[in-house]
Amino acid sequence: xxxxxxxxxxxxxxxxxxxxxxxxxxxxxxxxxxxxxxxxxxxxxxxxxxxxxxxxxxxxxxxxxxxxxxxxxxxxxxxxxxxxxxxxxxxxxxxxxxxxxxxxxxxxxxxxxxxxxxxxxxxxxxxxxxxxxxxxxxxxxxxxxxxxxxxxxxxxxxxxxxxxxxxxxxxxxxxxxxxxxxxxxxxxxxxxxxxxxxxxxxxxxxxxxxxxxxxxxxxxxxxxxxxxxxxxxxxxxxxxxxxxxxxxxxxxxxxxxxxxxxxxxxxxxxxxxxxxxxxxxxxxxxxxxxxxxxxxxxxxxxxxxxxxxxxxxxxxxxxxxxxxxxxxxxxxxxxxxxxxxxxxxxxxxxxxxxxxxxxxxxxxxxxxxxxxxxxxxxxxxxxxxxxxxxxx
Length: 392
Prior knowledge:
Mean pLDDT: 87
Largest sheet: 7 strands, antiparallel
Number of helices: 11
Shape: globular
CATH architecture of the largest domain: Sandwich
Strand order of the largest sheet: 1-2-10-6-13-4-3
CATH class of the largest domain: Mainly Beta
Strand content: 15-25%
CATH superfamily of the largest domain: q2cbj1_9rhob like domain
C-alpha cells in the first residue's frame, strides 16, 4: 500500500499537502474510479452479521491501492487526528493525560536509580548508551537511599491514574479518555470520507456499519494511544494477563448502530486481550446497552454467569470502558436514535491474544509498566540515528 511504501510521516505529509485543496476543484480521477469499482459491492443491509470479516476479502485486496490513492486525492479534513502524539493536549482527557505523564516521570526517575544501583550504563537523550559514563560509588549510595521514596512516588502516581477509573461492573472500568473535540473531529472526518463515495470496508465480522480506522490513515495515532496510554493502564488493571508484548498492537474501528441498519450485536468475545469502547457523543439514542458476562478461559461456564449492563447513553462524549477482550458481551437492541462508538482492540505481535495468567513474579511492576513507552521511543530514536549515520 502507498502508506506502507512511503512511511507514516511521509504519507501524512503528502495527505496534508493536499488537504486544503477544495474537493470540487481537485482532480477526481482516482475517486471516480473508486466509486465505479464500489458499484460491485452489495448493500450493507444484505451482508451477514456473522463471520463477515472474510466477505469479498480478495476483492478488497485487489483494489486496496486504488482506494488508497483515492483517499489521498480526496484529502483529509482534520490533520490533528492523524498525529495524536503532537495534539494529545487537545484530543485526550486532560486529567488522564496529566496522570499518565506523572506516572512516566516517576517511572523514569525510578528506572534511572535502579540502573545506577546496578552499575549499568545510562542513555543519552537520543537513546544512545553513554559509553564514557559509569556510576560512581556516591551515585550508587544516592540511588539506594532514594529507592524507597522513588517507589512511593511511583505508587502515588499510579494511584492517581486509578482514581480516574471506576469499576461499573465486574471487570468493566469506565474512564474519560477523549475530549469532546476529538469526538466531534472524528465524526466529521468519517462523514467527510463517506461523502467521497470511496468504498469503506466493514469494521469487523459482525458489525456492518462503520469504518476501519487504519484505512483512513489513522494507524500512527492508534499506535500512540495503545502504547502510551492504554497498554500501561491495562497492565495495571489486569496484571495477570497483560505484561511485556501482550498489548503492543491495536486494531481500531468505529461502529454505528441505527434503526434500519445494525441495532444490536450477538453475544461474543473480542479478538483482543484488552478492549476500549468509547462513546463518540451522539445524543438522544435509547437502548443499546452492553451486557457483560464472564471471561473465557478464566471463569467456569462464563456465558452462564449473571449479566451486568453498561449504558453509553449516560456517558459524556469521550467517556469509555476498558475490559478484557475475552469477557463475553452483547450489544442490546437500540430502540431509537443513533449510537456511534470508537473501539480499539489490543493484542500481541501477529495478533496473539494472551489467555494463560502470569504468575505473580512474572507480572510487571509499576515502574516497568510506565517506563516502557519512553524506553521504546529512545530505542527507536537511537536506531534511526544509527541508520542515518550508516547511510552517510
